[in-house]
Task: structure prediction
Amino acid sequence: MSEGKQGGRPRDEQVDRAIARAARELLAERGYTGFTVDAVAARAGVGKAAIYRRFPTKQELIYTVAIHGANGEPPADRGSLAADLTAVCRTLAEQLAAAPPGVYTGLLADLYGSSGLATRFSEVFLARQRAVLEEVLGRAVARGELAAAPDPLVLHALVVGPLFVWLFVLGGAPEEVRKLVDTVVAGVLAVLR
Amino acid sequence: MSEGKQGGRPRDEQVDRAIARAARELLAERGYTGFTVDAVAARAGVGKAAIYRRFPTKQELIYTVAIHGANGEPPADRGSLAADLTAVCRTLAEQLAAAPPGVYTGLLADLYGSSGLATRFSEVFLARQRAVLEEVLGRAVARGELAAAPDPLVLHALVVGPLFVWLFVLGGAPEEVRKLVDTVVAGVLAVLR
Amino acid sequence: MSEGKQGGRPRDEQVDRAIARAARELLAERGYTGFTVDAVAARAGVGKAAIYRRFPTKQELIYTVAIHGANGEPPADRGSLAADLTAVCRTLAEQLAAAPPGVYTGLLADLYGSSGLATRFSEVFLARQRAVLEEVLGRAVARGELAAAPDPLVLHALVVGPLFVWLFVLGGAPEEVRKLVDTVVAGVLAVLR
Amino acid sequence: MSEGKQGGRPRDEQVDRAIARAARELLAERGYTGFTVDAVAARAGVGKAAIYRRFPTKQELIYTVAIHGANGEPPADRGSLAADLTAVCRTLAEQLAAAPPGVYTGLLADLYGSSGLATRFSEVFLARQRAVLEEVLGRAVARGELAAAPDPLVLHALVVGPLFVWLFVLGGAPEEVRKLVDTVVAGVLAVLR
DNA sequence: AACTAACCGAGACGGTACGTCACGTCTTTCG
DNA sequence: CGAAAGACGTGACGTACCGTCTCGGTTAGTT
Result:
């Protein structure tokens, strides 16, 4: 519909892939701080312009390649709110832990002031997480486990907050995240009652 | 003792204040990302060397002027774990909300790789928070409210995580933090039982 | 003959004209330095490829559209060397002054290293000027005004040099070129004697 | 007088020299077109900022280091206008020929549009040449060789024009510039009479 | 009263990344 | 095959900020 005329040479998907691949590698090797657009261009065998044609900013590039999945598929119904919530939390924790070090914190820091990426982050990444939580909550209401679904924003904070700070602020061991997840779920369930 | 010979002109405390003041203003005006040492020097009417004589890096400067208090005094005993915990959480939330926007997230991002500030942050700022938590937990054990104090790291994550993401990630309204605090405390108490 | 198979769609002459027109306009508006091929394509409503199909480089395009005439027709015999030389010089001066500002100097600068255009410039543009000079010199010899024709290269320098620097280096007023021409001719005649 | 406060670390003259030296070398090695500020910085062992602190633009740098002398000292009085003029022309020709290839033409091309450098070029480089010519003319008037000094701008064009185009446009042999100088001087003298 | 050491504002230093721009080529779709 | 559109690799541009260093000059405490 409102796509406008097409025309012109289409973007080369091989270039897309080369950029994404190089960016991911460099993010893993050098971390958020040491990440350079020039280095991405060099490793991808690509001009810088090809990168900036796709991503208005270095941060958008990182966001796109590193927070790739943000899958948002709600988990299969496991029959109880406790089980569903545990599954969601584990997926979330894995997603957070999967990114190269410093990516989430770096991105979060660069979000202030760059309204463009900030809204995309909120409206895509976070909104999708919240949607999953609402789905799980809806199932519980349908089952009769809950009288009414609570404020999803509060629930969101209760769920991702501990995971986030455990991994990125407090330096908690990634192996023990599962234990933390159990505790988080227990607390949340108690509050929802 | 191991102060070395003194000699020479002492530091001008007016310079200390001018730097702190200028830094705080600029942090508030431009946020963490737009904050530059040159701008601080210019606004404070001070040479850059005077700043770097006091702070080894830009991050240390920001940490010092913006996370000032980090006081760490445990609250007065309010007679119950619930009341103590609520008081601690409220103080914590106020402290987080008091800093100019982007300071905590920016600092957190710059912590990766700069071992110096990272350890100071962990060993002073976070350790102090944890000590406060352990104190109120100890009181609860003494009172007989709890059989044994739980893992303080987990508790720390459960308490500070939701507040952090509410304020800095999810964009929750600062006015509603008190409501969130109540929920957090309720959840934590349920888990500790 | 050596044209090769023709075949296929013939070049659209309307495109030729659109390119030439856009190029001339942009040269006049932005000068040699600010002149870009993309801008020509955009203004002409033409693809860049259509331009590069016609001109191997930006310089060739400029050369072709801006130094168009370079006609090289020797002037009608005016009966004396002085009159012939004056006519030649005036034509030359008009030609130099006709190009948008910066074209001659810009082209001259880009000639270093680009052997292709450099030889074409020498062998077409300059050689043609020199041929005209040799023609009027030949007439003078035939008339008995001169014993022998002098070195044409030296004469070329004596004639075109002052005009060039007057217009493009010294910033002399274009209206006063005629006065300069008279002086140049007088000097040249004196030397040839 | 109106020098303003000094303050601050003074420019390091060694850096001045390193930049000038590197720039001259690179100009000689790669010519005007291949000349890069980054390369100058790299070879001089200097940051780019140090260069841009001294020269607002690449062209100013080239102008300063390559048209260095522009000495402007009028030659010793040789007793006659012919001898003085010959000396001036030879000096001029040597100066033009001394610069690395493409410098004069490149600079000339870049002068259009950059009013800053353009006026400096006119008011320093060209004005100085013209002053020398006026000095020589003044001597001739004082000697009684000339009734009145002619328009210096015209004389300037007559003198420098042929040399310029001989060297940079027509591709005349530099060895034969002396012969050209003699012819130029003869023509000019004839005109001045 | 002189000396000395550390301070002060100012600002230059080497380094490094940024995002933009133009070149001339290549690759689409359409006529 | 020509044409419009526009992406491609290359490579320079000039700007910004970092943390350090160097000026000339000031301000204590120590001789």
User: Anything to note?
Assistant: Chains A and C do not touch (no CB pair under 8 Å). Chain A is about 70% helix and 0% strand. Residues 81-192 of chain A form a domain with the Tetracycline Repressor; domain 2 fold (CATH 1.10.357.10). The radius of gyration of chain A is 19 Å.
